[in-house]
Amino acid sequence: MEKHLTLPFTSFNSLTLFTGLCLGISAPAYAQAADNAEKKQDDTLVIEAQAPSLYAPGQSADPKFTRPLVDTTRTITVIPKQVLNDQGVNNLTDALKNVPGVGAFYAGENGSSSTGDAVYMRGVDTSNSIYVDGIRDIGSVSRDTFNTEQVEVIKGPSGTDYGRSAPTGSINMISKQPRMDNGLDASVSVGSAWFRRSTLDYNQMLNDTTAFRLNLMGEKTHDASRDKVQNERYGIAPSLAFGLGTSNRLYLNYLHVTQHNTPDGGVPTIGLPGYSAPSAATSALNSSGKVNTHNFYGTNSDYDDSTTDTVTMRFEHDLSENTTIRNTTRWSQIKQDYLLSAFMAADSNITRPNSDVGSWSLGRVANTKDVSNKILTNQTNITSKFQTGSIGHDVSAGVEFTREQQTNYGVNALTLPAANIYHPNSDISIGGLTRNGANANGTTDTAGIYAFDTLQITRTFEINGGVRLDSYHTSYDSATACGSTGRGALACPAGVPKNTPITTVNTNKSGNLVNWKVGALYHLTENGNLYANYAISQQPPGGSTFALAASGTGNSANRTDFKPQKAKTTEIGTKWEVMDKRLLLSAAVFRTDIENDVEANDDGTYSQYGTKRVEGYELSASGNITTDWQVIAGYTQQHASVRQGAIETAEGSSSLPYTPKHAFTLWNQYQVSDDWSVGGGARYVGGLSRGTDGAVGTPSYTEGYWVADAKAGYRVNRNLDIQLNVYNIFNKDYVASINKSGYRYHPGEERTFLLTANVHF
Predict the structure, then answer these.
(1) How many CB atoms sit inside 10 A of residue 750's CB?
(2) How far apart are CA 445 and CA 109, in angstroms?
(3) Which one of 119, 167, 357, 432 has the fewest CB atoms closer than 10 angstroms to its CB?
């Protein structure tokens, strides 16, 4: 949409009038002069300029990335608020469907289901590399986007940017902040399976430099595709800003989210392509057909409760027009406890009272968690632009001090009845969780320092680089209740009563991580460039989780004396701004080599000889094709493989699991008229291999699938518009995620609709 900037000219020349009066000009002459002045006051200068595209933010909101996205030598996908609104997206996992090859493809171990935003990217679990405003966000919860301005997905090693992180990328959610205007945006949504959601975004200027913003959210729904799976969440996010428009700015933010959900353990893979009965005794399953994907194998006692509380204070001071210093302090706590009744579908867990498959049942196991995650951090960053001779500099540097704490509380074991394979009974209660006194405690203290610089050697050539040093110390202790049964059971010492907590681990680990990156960019034209980038990223044993030091220096994959895992990434790409610089086109080829991967030896010990490689290319487009036509799209082809080490996929190939070779995503919206808009999109996820744990007869892969969505919007008046979103419009039946053993999977959501009324003042 074109915007007109109107600038009035004050043409009444007071000096001329004063001189004329002194000379005693005639009344007619004065009248003519006044008339001319009045006419000139009505003159205006009209400047026509294209409004920036709401689908293509030109800059990352993280000050560590100082250059515009078009000149950033990395593959970065930004999902702005407008895209989330148009798609009716309300959580992080759904937002990431706009990024090819990124998704929740992994459903957990056999008896342990993944919860929350379980994200895989370029062959690696990235769930522990999720950040909010550049600060690590720990916890296995589902993150709502009601207080999110945009989501930034940075592919490639992010160790230089954020410290220890997944070797293939990171995800950064940018929070909404107070603005220098007054406005209210509210929405009410209803949809399939009694979906109900409402949000409020209210911004109020208190004076010329102070503003208050309040975001509220409430949602309650049943899963349209899954019986008895319900979700309920509420959120409040007030924020206050002082000094807006001045050189000193203070932001105060608070976020609280409460969730009461039903965890979902999935459905058996019986009847899927690649399934075969685990033994001759169960061979009837080969022809018994698929189970109803609506079946719920949990119980009435299943629940997943969590609370998130985050307090943030950020102070910004402009030292000069080109130099700004920022200091951010954040305290955050996520508490989560859940009971998930998963089923075990191995041959030994199938009960067969007679030859009728309809009477057969699967053993259930209680998957439990009672955990508290806390983080306290203080981060200082300075950005500056300056010249040294003919060379321009664009600098970002800073120091960070962070303490992360996690406490896992042990709970008493629960016994669950079996579930019928085809007609499970979930109308049973097994009680709740009770702590048994055992626990596991982890604390990681990190001090980091970094510096990045982009050197503008000439008008067309730039070199950038950066280095980060992190010094960390992790301590870990755990106690296990003795006398239990199952995996990891601990026998009680002589004379010690059953369920007595016994200390099993008490250890610590310290180390330093040095990560760095270097890149070069050449401007082929004013609109396009060619770039290359190389980076080193490391993370300690156990990765970003508190598995570090879990088993001391003994025989463990997380031994504290192991070297950090190292990732080396090379990327060559090109970026172009076209259509009046409102459409950004990107293309890149990449290769990531991962070293020091831990592998099991034949004698049961562990060594660090494993290497992996993820390579491929990615294409993307975001912005406006025309004034009325907006698009965000991407395609990736990736080959992820084990170069040296044990095979990780059930099908026996060298591929890495949960990594589709081909992935495509497209969403576009067209403004048909002033009042009507239509939108639609499609995404493709290629078939992927699952992991391996020795399971017999289960599918070793999932098939690729296409899913299409659509939207129609109508503007009733300047204060009200209505939109209808339809998801999976062709009602495609597909596997969204599969677990490591292949016994369980989560079916994709069937066709649903969402009707939303949006109010603006």
Answers:
(1) 19
(2) 30
(3) 432
Q: How far apart are the C-alpha atoms of 371 and 701, rounded to whole Å? A: 32
pLDDT digit string, tens, across residues 28-85: 333 444 444 444 444 555 555 567 789 999 999 999 999 999 999 999 999 999 999 9
d(CA 56, CA 449): 31
Cβ-contact 182, 246 below 8 angstroms: no
Are 478 and 513 spatial neighbours (Cβ–Cβ below 8 Å)? no
Instruction: Supply the pLDDT for residue 556.
Output: 65
Pairwise CA distance, residues 465 & 352, whole Å:
64
In 3D space, the residue among 307, 268, 468, 265 whose CA is nearest the CA of residue 381 turns out to be 468
3-state SS, one letter per residue, for 132-174:
ECCEECCCCCCCECCCEEEEEEEECCCHHHHCCCCCCEEEEEE
Please measure the distance between the N-terminal and C-terminal CA atoms of the chain and give it in whole angstroms: 20
Q: What sign has the CA pseudo-torsion 184, 147, 307, 94?
A: positive
Tell me what percent of the chain is helix, strand and coil, each rounded to the nearest 5: 10, 55, 35
Query: Are the C-beta atoms of 348 and 362 separated by less than 8 Å?
Result: no
Q: Are strands 303-320 and 267-268 parallel, antiparallel or unpaired?
A: unpaired
What is the pLDDT, as a whole number, of residue 295? 95
**3-state class of 377 per DSSP?**
strand
Question: In degrees rounded to 5, what are phi and psi of residue 668?
Answer: -140, 155
| Sequence-distant (≥ 6) Cβ neighbours of residue 167 within 8 angstroms | 124, 157, 159, 537, 539, 565, 567, 569, 592, 594
Are 748 and 737 in contact, with CB atoms under 8 Å apart? Answer: no
Question: pLDDT (tens digit, 9 = 90+) per residue, 258-314?
Answer: 999 999 999 999 999 999 998 899 999 999 999 999 999 999 999 999 999 999 999
Nearest to 569 by CA among 515, 595, 533, 609: 533
User: What's the CA gap between 405 and 401, in Å, rounded?
Assistant: 14
Distance CA 89, CA 285 (A): 39
Cβ-Cβ contacts under 8 Å for 388 (sequence gap 6 or more): none
Residue 319, burial from CB neighbour count under 10 angstroms (0-12, 13-18, 19+): exposed
* Beta carbons within 8 Å of 379's beta carbon, 6+ residues apart: 134, 135, 327, 328, 329, 398, 399, 400, 401, 402
Low-confidence ranges of the chain (pLDDT < 50): 1-42, 546-549, 551
Half-sphere exposure of 134 (CA within 13 A, CB side): 23
DSSP for 481-548? Answer: ETT--STT--PPPTTPPTT-EEEEEEEEEEEEEEEEEEEEEEESSSSEEEEEEEEEEEE-TTTTSTTT
- Work out the number of other CB atoms within 10 angstroms of the CB of residue 488: 7
pLDDT of residue 545: 56
Per-residue CA distances from 48 to 3, 45, 614 (Å): 6, 10, 46
Q: How many CB atoms lie within 10 A of CB 1?
A: 8
Distance, in Å, from the CA atom of 450 to the CA atom of 439, rounded to the nearest integer, reads 36
Give kind and range of the element (H or E) at residue 668. Answer: strand 662-671
CATH of domain 51-760: 2.40.170.20
Here the tokens at position 337 are 């406890």
The pLDDT of residue 684: 97
Give the burial class of 252: count Cβ atoms within 10 A of its Cβ; 0-12 exposed, 13-18 middle, 19 or more buried.
Answer: middle
What is the residue extent of each domain of the chain?
51-760
Helices assigned H by DSSP within 144-301: 159-162
